Amino acid sequence: MLNFLNTYGFLIVSMLFGALLGLSVYLPLMAGQLSVASPGFYALGGYIAAIFSTKVFVTQNSSFPLYFLLLEILISALVSGILAIILIIPVLRLRGIYLAIATIAFVEILRVLALNLEITGGAVGIFGVPQPFASPLEYLWIALPLLILTMLFLYRLEKIRVGRALLAIRSDELAAESMGINSSYYKVLSFTLGAILAGIVGAISAHFLNTWNSRQGTFDASIIYLAFVLIGGSRTFVGPVVGGMLLTVLPEALRGMSGINGLPVWLGQFLRDGRLIIFGILLILGTIFFPQGMITPELLKRLKNLILNLLRNRKKPHPYPPLTKGRDPKN
Fold first, then answer.
1. pLDDT of residue 215
2. Nearest to 200 by CA among 50, 98, 70
3. Nearest CA to 129 among 14, 213, 42?
4. Among 97, 108, 79, 83, which residue's Cα sits nearest to residue 35?
5. Which fold has domain 2-315?
6. Quick one: pLDDT at residue 152?
7. pLDDT 10s digits, 83-114
8. What pLDDT, on the 0 to 100 scale, is given for residue 83?
9. What percent of the chain is predicted at pLDDT more than 90?
10. Cα(42)–Cα(21) distance, rounded to whole angstroms?
11. Hey, what's the torsion of the CAs at 37, 274, 260, 267, to 10 degrees?
12. What is the mean pLDDT of each run of 10 residues along the chain (331 residues)?
């Protein structure tokens, strides 16, 4: 088991980061906002961590101090949250594909700035980001608690007044406003929370990957993160978690399949390099056969009822007393 974890530690942590990035897209979607700005905030958080760790928090220790990493996470969250508020307020009246186009423009602006600024390393990026942990697997100490806390936060959010207001806006914004719900406030809130989460993941990922460049925040990444939500399920927070994990491990599975003996060369190359094409096919098929994603609230409810019924049946006493030696069961 330990050998398996050491071998696939990088992939396991990447799956958790994929789940978190899926949740960063899901948060604005709770208020009906089709935002694909998560790669921009993800790249921003990574650049903040990479710049601070290589130019400000310079240390002679063999490992990067964990308290510096936590400070970088805090700074990334603050900057991402402030920038999200500045971005979302002017485009509040945009909906659907128009909001998506505006957020794509934001991602591209950040990418072009990163390519041309000296502090970000230009097209080469920033290399040698120091490591707070000795191995990729040890990043589970940060990634796993962050995912669990985020899921608990979203579970609680959906049960309280704020979550119900977000879902009401998503269902029918005009009806929600007629009931006294301030849709602008809740839209800004959900968008900002998603941006903060993406920025936090970016700050950790910069150390995890040991390098950071403009390729981390591109339009391709926007499609991938959106696929996490649409394929996993957009009506419950469990969907993006499952979708993010599955689609993160999918390229590695395809890469393994490409090495099967007897496979045509063109097919093996397609399985290795055609990740975005395969994601596009999955989006089309998922939209047709699973319009609400693989994981839906109804499915979770059925699973919950099934588990409860199994537990009840296990606790029920046997209808007949156990037979004892020398006793007639009819008496």
1. 87
2. 70
3. 213
4. 97
5. ABC transporter involved in vitamin B12 uptake, BtuC (1.10.3470)
6. 96
7. 999 999 888 878 878 888 999 999 999 999 99
8. 95
9. 45
10. 8
11. 160
12. 78 94 94 91 95 87 86 96 92 83 91 91 89 90 95 93 92 89 92 95 94 88 89 91 91 78 79 76 81 87 88 70 55 51
Tell me how far CA of residue 226 lies from CA of 164, 255, 266, 325, 329, in angstroms. 23, 22, 28, 66, 64
69: Cβ–Cβ under 8 A, 6 or more apart, which residues?
49, 53, 132, 142, 203, 204, 207
Write the DSSP assignment of 186-225 as a string of letters. Answer: HHHHHHHHHHHHHHHHHHHHHHHHSEE-GGGSSHHHHHHH
What is the pTM (predicted TM-score) of this model? 0.89
What gap in Å lies between CA 106 and CA 80, rounded to an integer?
A: 13
Which stretches does DSSP call E strand in the chain? Answer: 126-127, 211-212
127: β partners: 211
Token duo for residue 19: 């789940």
Structure tokens at 173: 């914004």
Strand partners of residue 212: 126
Domain boundaries, the chain: 2-315
Q: Which residue has 């929600």 as its token pair?
A: 176
Tokens encoding 8: 């696939």
